[in-house]
Amino acid sequence: MEERELIENAIEVKEVCVNYKSLHNVTIRHSAFRKRKKEEEFKAVKNVSFSVKEGGILGIVGKNGSGKSTLLRSIAGVFSPNSGSIDLKNHSISLMALGIGFKESLSGRENIILSGLLLGFTEREILDKMSGIIDFAEIGDFIDKPVNTYSSGMHSKLAFSITAMLETDIMLVDEVLSVGDERFKNKSMSKMKELIEDKNRTVIIVSHSIELLREMCDEILWMHDGEVKEMGDPDEVLEHYLKFMTG
Amino acid sequence: MINGASCIISFIRGVKRISFSHMTVSYRIKYFLVGVGFAIIIPVFLYLLKKSMGFFEQLKNDVCRFVKDLKRYFRYAVRLAKADLRTEVANSYLDWLWWLIEPFCMMLIYAFVYGVVFQTTEEYFTAFIFIGLTVWSFFLRNTSASVSMVRSSKAIISKIYLPKYILLFSKMLVNGFKMLISFGVVIVMMIVYRVHITVNVLYLLPILIDLFLVSFAIGVVLMHYGVFVRDLPYIIDILLRMLMYLTGTFYSLAKRVPAPYGEIIEKVNPIAYLIASARDVLLYGKAISWQLLIVWTIISAIVLILGISLIYRNENSYVKVI
User: Fold this and answer.
1) Cα(B182)–Cα(B136) distance, integer angstroms
2) Which of B203, B244, B256, B311 pairs with A172 at a CA distance of 20 to 30 A?
3) C-alpha angle with apex A114: A112 to A118, nearest 5 degrees?
């Protein structure tokens, strides 16, 4: 127990608020002829603070629309919180959500390289892992065809393989553990476990699968309407969560 | 303070020796007022300067970040540009030949319309039009792409962070490559026409760099507003069409537009200026005014820095809007 205390935090999230507001699309006709509407603010995440230890695995649960994905995206740096701070301690980070940013008109191979470069890998590192990614994705000759010819299954299989093989220090996983057919699902699940069990990797998982979270996570964060409802030991929090959702 | 100010004023006006007692009353009042004016203006100015220090500090940080980001994402931009170019031609029969055929056909059309129908005559007319067309389409493509740039790359930017202007930068590399091919055609034309080549041809390099800077600066600013203002593409479309005729793509502004205005337009519109200088340098062997070149470099650099800063301030809210 004492040893664990010494491990540094990999992610520190302090009092983060994320609002969706007033940044509607403006058209000139609207702004000229209509009085300024009262600014509506939708607070997706309210005052959330938590930290994850180096190598820790945090699960996030909550009903739909409780701000889980928003929180994950702001940790990934896709958009900044309106207030509060997120400190990643200079770790590299990747967000694994359904379909990472593909350029639809480019081939799968090109997309692998581009995604890799964006994640901060050098071209050499990517080329080294290229065959691994292609093998894992199991999409055969389609790898050299444009991504917009892929079926949705192939699309997400490739996306999963890229993030799984190009390993970053912190992985944010957003509901992607049910990708592809039965066979690929099992494969991706065991790969996922292998990745997560690596002691150097810090992981945050958003999922609705209670069994999965109970099995994998060290800690569970339960979000409700943008706020932290409970955080702590998986069994305890998940039990409360289940009771809340069914009761 | 007041006396000091009045001394300065009178010194500037050429009064070498000044003594208060020799002045008439109205002069005393005048200097007094000037002094009071300075006494107010100078502190206000100092206050504003002090206040804007934070702003300049921020700009400096943004510039440092810009340089760092550009280095980090440069490989990505190049790779993306290459992939874009490759896919653009992958599915057509004549693939990369289109980059030659397209501007060449355009040139034939315009050469017919303006040369035969409207009887515009310039020396080396086809090359004259071709240079204008090449430079203009580089600018046109970048500008119209930049307005909808963020929206059209939603897939990527909603999943991973990257500085948004990198997308524009990559697009400019694509267009820049096409432009270079067109300039290759220009060289062929120059050989065919037996244009007398002078050392002034070397000016082309700074001209192209300037063109890149100007387009980048305008593109970055438009890119930001394009996210929030939906009608911007339409407006830009109209403006660009207007600008095309004010740029003298098919005719010489300085010769065609009545006396003072033609040259004024050519100086005020950077693209017109760059096109005219590219023609002067390549076809007519004239030297160009490098002062104006530097002025436009500085202006576009300032706009670019402000634009980059604007993007850094706002880029993380783009995803929420689109």
Assistant:
1) 12
2) B311
3) 115
Q: Which of B68, B87, B91, B160 to probe the A interface (max A CBs under 10 A)?
A: B160
- Digitized pLDDT (tens) for each residue of chain A, 247 residues in all: 344 445 677 778 877 888 775 545 555 666 555 555 555 667 778 888 888 888 888 888 888 878 888 888 888 877 777 788 888 877 777 777 655 667 778 888 888 888 888 887 888 888 888 888 888 888 888 888 888 888 877 887 888 888 778 777 888 887 766 666 778 778 877 887 787 777 778 888 888 878 878 888 888 888 888 888 888 888 888 888 888 888 7
Query: Total structural domains in chain B?
Result: 2
Is the complex ipTM higher than 0.95? no
Number of domains observed in the structure of chain A: 2
CB contact under 8 A, A78 and B155: no
Block residue for tokens 């634009």: B307
Same domain, B39 and B174: no
Task: Tell me which residue range forms the domain holding B271.
Answer: 92-321
List all residues of chain A from 11 to 40 with a beta carbon under 8 Å from chain B: 20, 23-29
Measure CB to CB from residue A78 to each of B83, B87, B158 and give the nearest one.
Answer: B158
> Sign of the CA dihedral B152, B158, B160, B166?
positive
Are B79 and A103 a contacting pair at CB < 8 A? no
Tokens of B159: 């999943």
Range of the domain at A50: 1-91+170-181+196-247
Strands of the sheet with A219-224, listed across from one edge: A93-96, A170-174, A202-206, A57-61, A219-224, A227-232
The one-letter amino acid code at B234 reads Y
Angle among Cα B26, B30, B32 to the nearest 5 degrees reads 115
Q: What global pTM score does this model have?
A: 0.79
Contacts of B86 in chain A (CB under 8 A): 110
Q: Are B290 and B160 contained in the same domain? A: yes
- Shortest alpha-carbon distance between residue B127 and chain A (Å): 35
- SS3 sequence of A65-114: CCCHHHHHHHHHCCCCCCEEEEECCCCCEEEECCCCCCCCCCEHHHHHHH
Q: Quick check: is B207 in a domain? A: yes
The helix/strand/coil state of A179 is: coil
End-to-end CA distance of chain A: 36
CB contact under 8 A, A100 and B83: no
Residue B18: in which H helix or E strand, if any? none
